[in-house]
Amino acid sequence: GAGVSQSPSNKVTEKGKDVELRCDPISGHTALYWYRQSLGQGLEFLIYFQGNSAPDKSGLPSDRFSAERTGGSVSTLTIQRTQQEDSAVYLCASSPLGAYEQYFGPGTRLTVT
Amino acid sequence: SQQGEEDPQALSIQEGENATMNCSYKTSINNLQWYRQNSGRGLVHLILIRSNEREKHSGRLRVTLDTSKKSSSLLITASRAADTASYFCATMNSGYSTLTFGKGTMLLVSP
Does the beta-carbon distance from A100 to B31 stay under 8 Å? Predict the structure, then answer.
């Protein structure tokens, strides 16, 4: 079956611009996660959605970061007023209800110039 | 913040040899998972071991968990060039559903 997909695969943006990153989870998976991977910080948790519950936003690094998940499926991570330190690979993962293992997408490489 | 620390940071071996990677963590966990990442992109789940398990096997993979030492090891037997990748341990704390990743071990298997 289809895995987790993310778009775009690469994004180059100028400092100060807003960007939107998209994640399509595996059909039927109730949980969706966003992580960020950068050379200096490794893999960091950003935000977690589970069904219709309020998301766990505890990993978002600043209020410039937000995410939404529409209809319990597709999710969009938005970064406002991008900074150079936002350059990283943004990874999305999904998981079926009751499972602990996560299925990752290929990531979006964001470069802020 | 990082929970796990993998050791070594990098490992270079020949095909056919075994590769052992270690992971240490700091807090009580519900389970520990190992993931593989090729070329810095998506991660692939390899194996999960629960806090009440001590050893688990999957194909050429063997994982051990010592909760008293807060450590785990991943053994890949009879390695192949295709095993070349970065390997991450990730912990899931009790009552949570998110993973905390270590910094990873880069494994290079030469033909």
Answer: yes
